[in-house]
Amino acid sequence: MCSTGWQTGDVLDDVAALVAERNRIDAALARRVRAAELAQAPERDGQKSMASWLRGHCRVSGSVASRIVGNGRVLQHLPVLAEAAEAGLVTAEQVAEAAKLVAPQRLAAFAAAGVDLGEVDGVLTGVAVERDHATLVKVVEHYLDRLDPDGPEPDPTEGRSLTISRHADGSVSFRGHLDAVGGEKFQTAVEAHVQADRPAGDDRTRAQRQGDALVQIADNALATGAVPVLRSVKPHVAVRIDLDDLASGAGTADMGFGATISAARARWLACDGRISRVVFGPDGVPLDVGREQRLVSGGLRRAVELRDGGCVFTGCDAPSHWTDVHHLVHWIDGGETSLENSALLCERHHTKVHHGFRVERQPSGRWRTWRPDGTEITVPAHLAPIAPTAA
User: Fold this and answer.
1) What b/e sequence results for 42-60 when a residue is b if at least 16 CB atoms lie within 10 Å of its CB, and e otherwise?
2) Which of 40, 271, 325, 386 fits a disulfide with 296 by CB distance 3.0 to 4.6 angstroms?
């Protein structure tokens, strides 16, 4: 809502002040996260890293969590830049750009080349405070070129990356980078499908045709079985839907990686897919195989996956294909191999549960987790403002 009493300059001053305050808060957060990382604080809640703790307990995305952790390391190595950030003069994005120079291998390269890191710190800070972001990027690239004037070693895997992000509506976006040879293989495979699928009257854009080609490549790989087996199960597109919804086409269905689709879409997938009937009771898949079988059957694992969806340890977002089926009461202690006595846990948290942590399923279906000292791990953590300390 605008007020005629406000002058344009006042509004812009407020914006600048808020940006500066955000910069100070971002710097303080990065510093505190670094302190927690050095203290191995995430272990208290059964997490391996501050990035995973931030994802599970503070509801931030993986990319944001990684940036906060990386920025904390930058501020530790570049004190002049840290001082400017804490004064609100440098943004978190600028600090993240400087992170390229303080990775362990870069620091070693600086030392080997006799480069004064303090000098680099001063130059970067001056550029970050006085120039635009693009100039800082060029300065960082300049230092990287000085460290390695002949280019990177010819190991193609070092430069390859792929990041996949799922959005609230279930759609997926991704970004990546491939070396020249890997990129050629990728483009060749995509182009083969693009050129093979050019029907008359096709009005799709080039980008749309390439997107369809990528999905077709995945379809072919899954259909032919030319992908590694996951957890003793052949990889497949999993869709969970109640029988009544499948029959009527109403309602929704849940997919293996957590996306929600319409029942109508699920019916379309079922046209050429195999339907497995899983009944959570005595008449369908054998959910309780008793004491005679210690290992989990395919039918039981499928039922546990459908119920739990992924690792049930509080704060963990590992998908089902990263998990083991854990006996809540150990088999050796008399626990049965049954749905009631099973829980999905990723490898890390499966180990944690065997070393003092405890998970328990409530009658409501909610899972809860306790530390070895008996205190409960809760998510999301309270994000209440920090009270000011007395002077």
Assistant:
1) beebbbeebbbbbbbbbee
2) 325
Residue 301 contacts residue 233 (beta carbons within 8 Å) = yes
Mean of all residue pLDDT scores within the chain:
81
Total residue length of the chain: 391
Q: Which of 334, 343, 375, 382 is nearest to 356 (CA)?
A: 375
Under 8 Å CB-to-CB from 370, ≥6 apart: which residues?
A: 357, 358, 359, 360, 376, 377
d(CA 120, CA 273): 59
Rounded to whole angstroms, the Cα distance separating 95 from 112 reads 24
Q: What are the tokens at 153?
A: 């070693």
Contact partners, residue 213, CB within 8 Å, separation at least 6: 190, 191, 192, 193, 194, 197
Q: What is the 3-state secondary structure of 201-226?
A: CCCCCHHHHHHHHHHHHHHHHHHHCC
Report pLDDT digits (tens) over 250-284. 888 888 777 888 888 777 676 655 665 555 544 44
What is the spatial distance between Cα 96 and Cα 86, in angstroms, rounded to a whole number?
A: 15
For the chain, strand residue ranges (E) read 161-166, 172-177, 239-240, 252-255, 260-262, 323-327, 342-346, 358-361, 367-370, 376-377
Cα–Cα distance between 138 and 175 in angstroms, integer? 22
Q: Which helix (H) or strand (E) holds 304?
A: helix 298-308
pLDDT at 215: 86
From first CA to last CA, the distance across the chain in angstroms is 38
What are the tens digits of pLDDT across the range 282-341? 444 444 545 445 556 667 788 888 888 889 999 988 888 788 888 888 766 777 778 888
Task: Give the bridge partners for 319, in sequence order.
Answer: 310
* Beta-carbon contacts of residue 33 (< 8 Å; ≥ 6 apart): 50, 54, 68, 69, 72
376-377 and 367-370 strand pairing: antiparallel
The tokens describing 120, both together, are 């680099």
Confidence label for 71 from pLDDT (cuts 50, 70 and 90):
very high
Q: In the Cβ-directed half-sphere of 132, how many Cα atoms lie within 13 Å?
A: 1
d(CA 113, CA 115): 5
